[in-house]
Amino acid sequence: MTHSERLRAKEPEVTTAWLGWVVFIGIILCAAGLINAVQGLVAIFDDGFYRAPTSSLVVDADYAVWGWALLILGGTLLFAGAGVVLGYRWARVVGVVVASINALVNLGFATAYPTWTILAVCFDVSAIYALIVHGGEAKALRAGRR
Question: Cβ distance 99 to 88 under 8 Å?
Answer without folding.
Answer: no
